[in-house]
Records
---
Amino acid sequence: MEVLIERGEILKVLYSFYTEVMHNQILKNHFEVLHTNFNGHVENIADFWDLTLNSKRKMKNPSNSKFDVIGVHLSLKPTQADLEEWIKLFKECLFSYAEGDQGKLERVRKWWKITLNIKKFFELKIINNDANN
């Protein structure tokens, strides 16, 4: 299987994104509480994206994977506004990385499409959590 995004590229996008998150008034509190090991967190998220983008084995349900990205982040009790801010920042970092490079832009568009599918999954979980509270 062709590698969509190399791990080094994933890390560049993620470090850019989390740098922005740590300065974002809406999102930074979620990460200040949980992540004293910033580099470890970025490496774990890079593992998730590497598997998601480049593995022959696709995850059917991200909350059932060994990465449990959905479950961990839902424990932060994100709101729809938090999710919208996250997605806005991630999109900015993702497309900024590809700016001026058509090959990167094509790969980033595929990454973005997967990101939007994960966003939909988060939205369903947020709605269900709100309904149960």
---
Amino acid sequence: MLEIINPSMVSLIQSIIIILSGLVILIASIGILTFDKDMPNIVYVRIHVLGMIDVAGIVVFLALGQYMFAVMYLVLAPFLAHAMANAYFYGEDDYNTLYADDMVEDKYAALNAPDKLDDDAVEDESGEDADSAEGNADETASENLDSGDESND
């Protein structure tokens, strides 16, 4: 069985794999450059295409016998893609993060709602403001005290 596989055959297979991976990288790179720059959330599309380039790079490392580099690339590439997407999501780009800013504000407002309640803006079930409801309760209590005092006279 070992006699069938000679070093020149392995070298040919490695060369074919490297050429195919190079073509994938070239096509993906041209595809990234042809995307419309005004497209919303273009960074996420580009990160997705860069995933194909990552896989082609891992295949090249494996074909060259660089297994440690392939494993490191396989482990670190998703972390890098996540870091880029996260930086873009929370970034300061005015055009593409308008929707993201609204989502983040809504999320934090929902999480911190009890801490940020304003008594003037709080309404109870009847639809009245909290201050007017407290005022009505105080008036009712004073009327009860006054009516109780009159009945004792």
